[in-house]
């Protein structure tokens, strides 16, 4: 059995991240939401807000290990590399701030559902394809990856970055299964034309194509 504290803390952090993402995925699933809607309908308006509070609170556990655990440095940047990495990180922050204009913050946090006593399982936002969503389906995840992998990396941060990257890829796929059920064939066509996390120069939508998909969805909804 390993006794090196660096290895022990790495194993501990791995277990913690697996547990965190399992809990996060279960609580985000339509199956659990459906069960709550059926058996505890009065709680549904507070579900999204409660989910967010739990997700943020539980992050304190891996954060504590990251801060206090034993670690070894894997890489760090200096000189021109430092400037390049910080430039990429700054671009991600700016992109994130710009993208917030196209999200319903009240919906995302769960405040609108609570205020309006919304009990439906589905997200209530209509289909939107922002300028950033024309190039990647999950721009927030893309910006997060840019931030994560441009930072100095020690052994514990490397484990965290790896698990967060895997979760962004796997979690985005699970999220898209829900979006398919919300938006149907329109979203399936969107998936075919726009990459998930990594922009590809030959695969994106122009403004006209994005508006056409939105119009198709609105027409199907009877808008």
Overall SS class: mainly alpha
Helix content: 55-70%
What's the end-to-end separation, in Å? 63 Å
pLDDT < 50 runs, ≥5 residues: none
What's the total count of β strands? 2
Shape, principal axes of CA atoms: globular
Radius of gyration: 20 Å
Q: H/E series, N to C?
A: HHHHEHHHHEHHH
How many helices? The count is: 11
Q: What is the total number of structural domains?
A: 1
Biggest β-sheet: strands ordered side by side in the sheet: 1-2
The portion of residues forming beta strands comes to: under 5%
Describe the structure.
- The protein starts with a helix and ends with a helix.
- By secondary structure, the chain is an all-alpha fold.
- The longest helix has 29 residues, at 155-183.
- The mean pLDDT is 89.
- α5 runs antiparallel to α8.
- The chain has a two-stranded antiparallel ribbon.
- It has one domain (5-220).
- The chain has 11 helices and 2 strands.
Question: What's this, in brief?
Answer:
The protein has eleven helices and two strands, in the order ααααβααααβααα.
Write the SSE topology.
Layout (H helix, E strand, L loop, with lengths): L4 H24 L1 H10 L7 H12 L1 H9 L4 E3 L3 H21 L5 H5 L1 H5 L23 H10 L4 E2 H29 L1 H9 L13 H14 L3
Antiparallel strand pairs: 1-2
Helix pairs in contact: 1-4, 1-9, 5-8, 10-11
Highlighted features:
223 residues; 11 helices; 66% helix; 2% strand
């Amino acid at each position: 059995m390993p006794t090196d504290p660096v290895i022990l803390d790495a194993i501990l952090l791995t277990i913690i991240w697996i547990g965190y993402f399992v809990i996060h995925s279960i609580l985000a699933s339509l199956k659990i939401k459906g069960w709550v809607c059926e058996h505890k309908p009065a709680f549904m308006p507070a579900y999204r807000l409660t989910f967010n509070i739990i997700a943020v609170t539980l992050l304190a556990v891996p954060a504590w290990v990251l801060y206090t655990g034993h670690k070894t440095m894997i890489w760090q940047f200096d000189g021109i590399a430092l400037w390049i990495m910080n430039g990429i990180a700054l671009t991600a922050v700016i992109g994130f701030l710009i993208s917030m204009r196209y999200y319903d913050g009240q919906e995302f946090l769960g405040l609108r559902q609570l205020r309006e006593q919304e009990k439906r399982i589905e997200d209530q936002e209509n289909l939107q394809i922002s300028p950033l969503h024309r190039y990647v389906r999950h721009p927030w995840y893309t910006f997060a990856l840019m931030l994560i992998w441009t930072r100095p990396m020690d052994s514990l941060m490397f484990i965290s970055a790896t698990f967060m990257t895997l979760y962004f890829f796997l979690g985005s796929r699970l999220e898209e299964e829900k979006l398919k059920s919300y938006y149907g064939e329109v979203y399936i066509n969107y998936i075919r034309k726009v990459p998930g996390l990594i922009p590809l120069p030959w695969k994106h939508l122009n403004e006209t194509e994005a508006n056409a998909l939105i119009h198709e969805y609105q027409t199907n909804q009877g808008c």
